Amino acid sequence: MRNSTLSICVTTLVLLVSQPTLAATDKTIYNKMVSLYRKGNCKKVTQAFETAAGKAPFQWNTLNLAAVCYAQTGKKKQAFQRLEEAVERGMLDRVLVESGGFEPLYNDTRWQRLLARMDKIRKGAFPKTWKELTVIPLPPPKLTGKMPLETAL
C-alpha cells in the first residue's frame, strides 16, 4: 500500500511540474482537485470534477487527475473516459499513466488499447525522417559543497 501511495504522489508531482498553460477556470478547478487529492480524498476530487464539468474545457492534466481518482474509487468506465479525453488533448507520455494510480485498470482490456493508442499517436507526431534519440551516459555531478544542490541540478 505504501508503494502505491508513493507512486500516486510521484504522479501528482509530475503533473504539477509538467502542468501546461491553463485557462483560468480550468486552473482553478485543477488546483482545487490537487488540494483535495493531497488530502487523500479521491471521492471529493471526482465530485469537484463533476461539479465543474461543462464550465471549462479541461486540459489533459485535469482529466488525468480525475481519471486517477475514478480508478481509485472503482469507477473504471469514468476513468477510461477521462483518460481517452486526456489523450485527445495531448497526454501521450506513458510514464504518466504507468507510474501509479491506475493499478485497478491494469487487468482491463481497455488498458492495453489505451496504451497502444497513445503509442500510435506519439509515433505519428514526429516526422519519419527523425531518428531515435540515443541516450548518452553522463558522469555523476561533482558536488564540492560550494553550490547548493538545487542550483547544481
Unreliable segments of 5+ consecutive residues:
1-22
- Largest sheet entry: none
Structural class: mainly alpha
- Measured distance between first and last alpha carbons: 31 Å
Q: Judging from the principal axes of the Cα atoms, what is the shape? A: globular
Q: What is the number of helices? A: 8
Helix content: 55-70%
Nearest-integer average pLDDT: 79
Q: Tell me what portion of residues adopts beta-strand conformation.
A: under 5%
Radius of gyration: 18 Å
Number of extended strands: 0
Secondary-structure element series: HHHHHHHH
Any descriptors?
single chain, 153 residues, mainly alpha, 8 helices, disordered N terminus
Description:
The chain has 153 residues and is mainly α. Helix content is 61%, strand content 0%. The chain has eight helices and no strands. Helix 2 (24-38) packs parallel to helix 4 (60-72) and helix 5 (76-88) packs parallel to helix 7 (109-124). It is globular, with a radius of gyration of 18 Å. The model is unreliable at 1-22 (pLDDT under 50).
